Amino acid sequence: MDKLARMKDLVGILKEASRVYYQESSEMMSNLEYDRLYDELLALEKETGVVLSGSPTQSVGYEILSELPKKAHPSPMLSLNKTKSVEELAAFLGDQPGLLSWKMDGLTIVLTYDHGSLQEALTRGNGEIGEIITANAKKFMNVPLSIPFGGRLVLRGEAVITYPDFAEINARIPEGEEKYKNPRNLCSGSVRQLDSSVTAGRRVRFEAFSLVEAEGKNFVWNHEAYKWLKELGFDVVFYRSVTADTLPEAVKAFSEDIAANPIPSDGLVLLMDDIAYGASLGRTAKFPRSSIAFKWADEQQITHLKEVEWSASRTGLINPVAIFEPVELEGTVVSRASVHNVSIMKQLELGFDDEISVYKANMIIPQIAENLTRSGTVRPPKYCPVCGEPTVIREENGVKTLHCPNEACPAKQIKAFDLFVSRDAVNIEGLSESTLEKLVDLGIVRKFRDLFYLQDHRSAVMSMEGFGAKSFSNLQAAAEKARHTTPVRFLTALGIDGIGPATAKLICRHFGNDIDAIRNASAEEFTAIGGIGEVMADSLVRYFRDPANAAMLDDLVSVMDIRAEEGVRVPQSLEGKTVVITGSLLHFPNREALQAQIEAHGGKAAGSVSAKTTCLVNNDPHSASTKNKTAQKLGVPILTEDEFIDKYMPEVFA
User: Fold this and answer.
1) Are residues 389 and 355 in the same domain?
2) Is 70 in the active site?
3) Any idea of the CA torsion for 441, 444, 449, 451, to the nearest 10 degrees?
4) Residue 269, strand partner residues
5) Are 305 and 322 in contact (CB under 8 A)?
6) E strand or H helix at 610, and its extent?
7) In a domain, 16, yes or no
8) Residue 443 has pLDDT above 60, yes or no
9) Full-prediction pTM beyond 0.70?
10) What string of DSSP letters covers 244-296?
11) Which pLDDT value is given to residue 602?
12) pLDDT score, position 43
């Protein structure tokens, strides 16, 4: 293939990979592979002197196709040139002081303030035109809505979701829905929502990294601007002041902090501290000359592929996982790496016993960097590894994935069973997911009601590994105990989208714990409950009107003893107290649901903080929000949701 033909191929591949990554929050290749192809294209452009139309080496963002309103940036938002060499970083800095900070892996946002209040928020978009996301930015965890500065202020930063918040959000996803793949994709989708209430529940944070304009202010140093932004209430990216001499030590310190850094990062950024000097350097068509990105030179090891394991999920998606001879990377031994999808597997041309190079993406996540053999002998399985039914390959947004279309596949049922028997649901003590898998594989459990007839399969259960007469007796006793349950536990156990213990309590209380009344209720009746919106009401009605669900419920009701706990009275622990709620919630679907619980406990839910406020509930007690500042000024306690529940209503999730 001649060089120009190869360049055309590379432009097409890289543009499609960028489109899938930025617009669809998906992946058709690893970051390392993208960088490798990008560098190949850049080298060919320098060698031939030809730059093709649409080359990603000339673009700085993504083509905007969303329904969000658009607006042009006053000046282009450029991307950063990059290096993997500490020596090149030092040469870039020369004799100037610099600031070395995390290169955050999220979505770049521009915030504009005027007269002390947030006026506008824009995404970077394609560098020329961004999307207006002002309403969404106001739902970020830590963006000040008002600041103690009356002039015009423009700053840039990164919208991010931390690793702990990402894990917590994934853990709260209702059964039957697919988990999010990584914090960056979740953040991108959260920031660019048409409905800001969705953004509010995603725990998005803003980390400032650049002061663009501050009316009447003339800072000499970037570190002075950072300090001033902190005083205004903004969170600023963590940075270290460096010189060319101290740079290697600082890079080493950052590398040692990667595992403890809660904010996703894909490298570092070196910025000239002297603002005027940095501006004097100018820019290229794509890059500013005042800053540069540093990408980790990932430690790679050569190993051999042993097999590709196909992991079926409850959504029907079957993901390939590479199993290879163990190697040590970044101080830990690894032997597995997700291949993500069929497209990446085919791109790598994986084959059994192939010699592969592996690394940890961002020094954390094991990935295949390159296949040195490329035998291409691995094929997607024609049959589901769990149920044995034929699989199908689906293509969406240029990415091919493997699926099991069988709705009765046990892999799709395990999580539903696991939720049904969980502690907040009917609570069959000691019945683990692994035991459920064995019961399903043996055909003992096919429906929820089968869990209460294990005595009919005594010998089969006792033949399972780890089971004897005593363990079977304990399991049967736990199932019999769980058969006698409450309406709240029963409703929670069904796994209806968005219906957890708190919402189930609201519904059962409204309908007097009458399961039949709940099953036959209309959407209007559900929306009459504080905390239940139209989306959730429609979900409930669809669930109960579905013929298969109706038959399953008839089955369960006939074998279970569902009764409200007698003499249960909601403690009036908040009588005479006033509570204000702000920010996103973890345990309740929305503020209305928590407000309903406050009122049920005898309290009053108010909208603003005053001297009469008992406490402010905020899961980000250190935020610079107006309500937090008012509470601090008045001496009103600020409690996280968990602290509030533990203090005033511990029985809610007991």
Assistant:
1) yes
2) no
3) -90
4) 101, 293
5) yes
6) none
7) yes
8) yes
9) no
10) TTTHHHHHHHHHHTTTT--S-EEEEEEEESBHHHHHHT-B-SS-BSSEEEE--
11) 83
12) 85
Other beta carbons within 10 angstroms of residue 194's beta carbon come to 12
Q: What is the DSSP letter of 564?
A: P
Q: Is 576 left (phi over 0), alpha (psi -120 to 50) or beta?
A: left
| 111 touches 117 (CB < 8 A) | no
Q: Indicate whether 385 and 432 sit together in one domain.
A: no
Query: Catalytic one among 8, 103, 295, 447?
Result: 103
User: Could you tell me if 518 and 638 lie in one domain?
Assistant: no
Local confidence band at 175 (pLDDT 50, 70, 90 cut-offs): very low
Give yes or no for a contact between 147 and 153, defined as CB atoms under 8 angstroms apart. yes
Mean pLDDT, residues 107-131: 90
Which of 294, 328, 353 marks a domain boundary?
Answer: 294
Confirm if 290 and 279 have CB atoms less than 8 A apart: yes
Task: State how far the Cα of 336 lies from the Cα of 325, in Å rounded to an integer.
Answer: 9
Q: How does DSSP classify residue 476?
A: H
Contacts for 218-224: CB closer than 8 Å, 24+ residues apart: 219/275, 220/274, 220/275, 220/276, 221/273, 221/274, 221/275, 222/99, 222/271, 222/272, 222/273, 222/274, 222/275, 222/278, 223/99, 223/273
Written as six digits, the tokens of 415 are: 């999580």
For residue 604 the two structure tokens come to: 């009053």
Is 350 part of any domain?
yes
Query: What is the tally of structural domains in the chain?
Result: 6
Summarised one tens digit per residue, pLDDT across range 222-280 is 999 999 999 998 999 999 999 999 999 999 899 888 877 889 888 899 999 999 999 99
Q: Where is 303: in which H helix or E strand?
A: strand 301-312
CA dihedral angle for residue 269, residue 274, residue 277, residue 282, rounded to 10 degrees: 30
| 238 and 277, same domain (yes or no) | yes
Q: Computed over its alpha carbons, how large is the radius of gyration of the chain? A: 28
Q: Which two structure tokens, joined as six digits, stand for 178?
A: 């697919």
Is pLDDT of 478 > 50? yes
Q: Are residues 290 and 253 in the same domain?
A: yes
Query: What's the angle, vertex CA 238, arms to CA 182 and CA 244, rounded to 5?
Result: 115
Give the structural domain span for 461.
410-485
**265 forms bridges with which residues in the sheet?**
104
Residues near 398 by beta carbon (within 8 Å), at least 6 away in sequence:
16, 19, 20, 28, 343
Per-residue model confidence (pLDDT) at position 559: 92
Give whole-number Cα distances, 38 to 15, 17, 309, 444, in Å: 10, 11, 30, 54
Name the H helices within 110-262.
134-137, 163-171, 183-191, 196-200, 222-231, 247-256
pLDDT at 550 over 80: yes
Predicted confidence (pLDDT) at residue 422 exceeds the cutoff of 70 = yes
